[in-house]
């Protein structure tokens, strides 16, 4: 049996979904949505997690392309990647419309 191939859109949507799959990452994104950018040190004071754990979550969001970081020693400032957010919104919208319009029944 041949392995199923996934489209680039399916892979990208799954990557975005994985990055959104933790409540602290959602909280980080909500924090960044309310301001132009935010320093790692400021986030570590506001969120109930260790700095090292925060760094891991920021890296997950960054690897997914949902945020970007700018290093200005001694700090790193993070901000939303608006271009990829538009792509994520479009992919999620398409999926939700397909599900909503589905007649399939088990």
Q: Can you describe this structure in just a few lines?
A:
By secondary structure, this protein is of the alpha+beta class. The protein is 59% helix and 13% strand. The chain has one domain (8-99): Arc Repressor Mutant, subunit A.
Describe the structure.
- A three-stranded antiparallel β-sheet has the order 1-3-2.
- The protein is of the alpha+beta class and 106 residues long.
- Strand 2 (67-72) and strand 3 form a beta hairpin.
- The protein contains five helices and three strands, in the order ααβααββα.
- The mean pLDDT is 92.
- The protein has helices at 8-19, 23-33, 40-46, 51-64, 82-100, and strands at residues 38-39, 67-72, 75-80.
Question: How many structural domains are formed by the residues?
Answer: 1
In CATH, what is the homologous superfamily? Winged helix-like DNA-binding domain superfamily/Winged helix DNA-binding domain
The percent range for helix content is 55-70%
**How does CATH name the architecture?**
Orthogonal Bundle
Low-confidence stretches: none
Examine the coordinates and then state which fold CATH places here, giving the name of the CATH topology: Arc Repressor Mutant, subunit A
- State the helix count: 5
Structural class: alpha+beta
Global geometry: elongated
Radius of gyration: 17 Å
For this structure, what is the CATH class? Answer: Mainly Alpha
């Amino acid at each position: 049996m041949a392995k199923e191939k996934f489209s680039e859109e399916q892979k990208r949507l799954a990557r975005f979904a994985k990055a959104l799959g933790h409540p602290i990452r959602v909280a980080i994104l909500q924090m960044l949505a309310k301001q132009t950018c935010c320093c790692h040190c400021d986030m570590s004071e506001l969120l109930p997690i260790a700095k090292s754990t925060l760094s891991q979550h920021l890296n997950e969001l960054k690897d997914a392309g949902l945020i970007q970081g700018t290093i200005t020693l001694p700090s790193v400032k993070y901000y939303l990647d608006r271009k990829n957010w538009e792509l994520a919104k479009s992919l999620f919208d398409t999926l939700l419309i397909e599900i909503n319009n589905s007649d399939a029944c088990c």
